[in-house]
Amino acid sequence: MRGQTFKQGAQAAVPTALGYIGIGLACGIMAAPHMNPLEMGLMSILVYAGSAQFAMIGLFAQQAPVLVIALTVFLINIRNLLLGLHASTLFRKSSLTQNIVIGSFLTDESYGVLMGERAHTEEIAASWMMGNNFMSYASWIVGTVFGTALGALLPNPESFGLDFALVAMFIGIFSSQFTIMLRRVKIKKLFLVLGVVGLSYLLLTILLQNSLAVLFATLLGCTVGVILDDK
Fold this sequence. Notes:
Blueprint: H1 6-12, H2 14-31, H3 37-46, H4 50-61, H5 66-77, H6 79-88, H7 96-104, H8 108-118, H9 126-151, H10 164-184, H11 187-204, H12 210-229
Helix pairs in contact: 1-9, 2-4, 2-9, 3-9, 4-5, 6-12, 7-9, 8-9, 8-10, 11-12
């Protein structure tokens, strides 16, 4: 039976883990001029957020205030509230502790793996999700630490343009998830969510910077998607 054991969850996350190692290497190489492998490892253990860590590295390079760094990380990761909200509906039979652990290690990619598994089975055990999360978590830590060690050997890591690695992975994940959504979600609902994101982005750019407009437009789209799923 699918979606039940820790081992099955870890196996389902292998493609994500391989991607995380590659992106983690890129993140570590970018971070090498500003921190050592131990500091990078602690960041990955405590923060565990690819896009936020890339942003933090850029802010470190600019010697930004701690408050600015903390606020940036908060805004980037606030979308996880919506991811966790939806994921929790799939684990209603699990304990509060299990749901807290699942939510604490949930990422865009592990959520995507969860949704892919949901396409094949309705009942997914908390142990499966923990295997999915742990495999991704461990691979990210390994990738970033080794990347920082490798980056110390390179003269100018920024010249490689490795910060695009995370964007490339998101494009790959979105394309696969979009294919699944076309089979599982009504086209009308799908285009309604996309329309909300697009329209809200255009309106928000009048008031906000592009980066913030993208963030809040995405949050609005996620909110609409959650509301429609409950109907």
